[in-house]
Design goal:
This protein is α+β, with helices and mostly antiparallel strands and about 250 residues long. It contains 6 helices and 12 strands. A hairpin with a 2-residue loop joins β10 and β11. The protein starts with a helix and ends with a helix.
């Protein structure tokens, strides 16, 4: 009987010790955990325009007549909204007064130069600025849900998750996924967000159209997220243990 009670007490304490979240399981930017993966540093790559992206542009020139004409054709509702131009399936955009321009696969600065060159054929002092209208990322799962704007260049995964809300303790920190469209199709980047080597790796920066997915960790089923929950769990478990020991006499 004593042996049986000892086994029950041992199981009880093991359950209690494994029922709370700890730093190793949910801590970010861990440096000295030998069980976490080590990611190589990767240089930041400029975003490349893709099919179905929406482009907005601004033309600057000393010719006020042409400037006003272009501006009037590029604004809606008395200048309150700027028109965007979709990148067609053939990789081109149709901008007023110039022929279709291929921009898919180019960076924003590369596209600016090509569009500016086209305009300089008719406006010698043309100066063009281009931007993405659909500069957003999406978050689903245990880090919030929604579509959010990329408010700065080189936005990091940590900044993106802070904008979406908070990374819940119930999330699978070991397998955070980024779905990213590329020239060769959709890629799924799977990484452990707990390790500090995420910084400046290929998982570090968030790009337009990225989808960040944080699934629910299977271990979260028996975890508690706060000390009050833990105390409640301990109290109820201890009561159950006492009851079992009483009836085993």
């Amino acid at each position: 009987m004593m042996k049986k009670n000892y086994i029950l007490l041992t199981l009880f304490f093991i359950f209690a010790m494994t029922s709370c979240y700890n730093y190793q399981s949910i801590g970010l930017m861990q440096e000295h955990n030998p069980y976490l993966p080590k990611y190589q540093k990767s240089a930041y790559e400029q975003y490349k325009i893709q099919i179905n992206d929406e482009i907005v542009f601004r033309l600057m020139t000393s010719d006020e007549t042409i400037s006003k004409l272009i501006s009037n054709n590029n604004m809606v509702g008395a200048g309150q909204y700027q028109i965007s131009y979709r990148v067609y399936t053939d990789g081109t955009i149709d901008i007023p007064f110039v022929k279709a321009i291929p921009v898919a696969g180019l960076t924003i600065s590369e596209a600016e130069k090509i569009v500016e060159k086209r305009f300089k054929d008719i406006i010698p002092d043309a100066n063009v600025r281009i931007a993405l209208a659909n500069k957003t990322f999406t978050v689903i799962g245990e880090a919030g849900t929604g579509v959010f704007p990329i408010v700065r260049e080189k936005m990091t995964i940590y900044q993106a998750l802070s904008i979406s809300g908070s990374l819940n303790n119930t999330g699978n920190f070991k397998h955070v996924k980024i779905l990213r469209q590329s020239e060769t199709g959709m890629k799924v980047l799977d990484f452990d967000i707990r390790t500090s080597t995420v910084i400046e790796s290929k998982y570090y920066y968030v790009y337009p159209n990225d989808i960040i997915y944080v699934s629910t960790a299977s271990s979260s089923f028996y975890k508690v997220s706060s000390w009050s929950s833990f105390i409640g769990l301990i109290t109820s478990s201890f009561s159950l243990l006492i009851t079992v020991l009483y009836y085993n006499r």
